[in-house]
Amino acid sequence: MAKIKSSIIIRAYNAEATIREALESALRQRFPVDQFEVVIVDDGSTDRTRDILREYTDNKQVTVVNHDHVG
């Protein structure tokens, strides 16, 4: 595996309407797949955001960080 050269950070709070589109857009980047990662920081969403993000748990490019809402 090549060394990660780029990270895409997405912050989310109650983003169920847009999180899938944002994540899919990030994953479509033309950068070599093994050289970038996508990190989503969920700020304690209370809608379906976390449920949607669970669909990506098998994708090694995606890391989800969950924590309590801090604004």
Low-confidence stretches: none
**Any idea what the radius of gyration is?**
12 Å
The major sheet is characterized as: 3 strands, parallel
Query: In which order are the strands of the major sheet placed?
Result: 1-2-3
Mean pLDDT: 93
Structural class: alpha/beta
Count of DSSP-assigned helices: 2
Q: Compute the number of strand runs.
A: 3
Question: Helicity range of the residues?
Answer: 10-25%
Hey, roughly how much beta strand do the residues contain? 25-35%
In terms of quaternary structure, the protein is single chain
> What would the principal axes of the Cα set say about the shape?
elongated
End-to-end Cα distance: 36 Å
Give the ordered list of helices and strands. Answer: EHEHE
Describe the structure.
Helices cover 21% and strands 30% of the residues. The protein is of the alpha/beta class and 71 residues long. It has a three-stranded parallel β-sheet. Strand 1, helix 1 and strand 2 (36-43) form a beta-alpha-beta unit. The longest helix has 9 residues, at 19-27.
Could you give the topology of this structure?
Elements: E1 6-12, H1 19-27, E2 36-43, H2 49-54, E3 62-67
Parallel strand pairs: 1-2, 2-3
Structure at a glance:
The protein is an alpha/beta fold and about 70 residues long.
Which key features would you list for this structure?
single chain; 71 residues; alpha/beta; 3-stranded parallel β-sheet; 3 strands; 30% strand; elongated
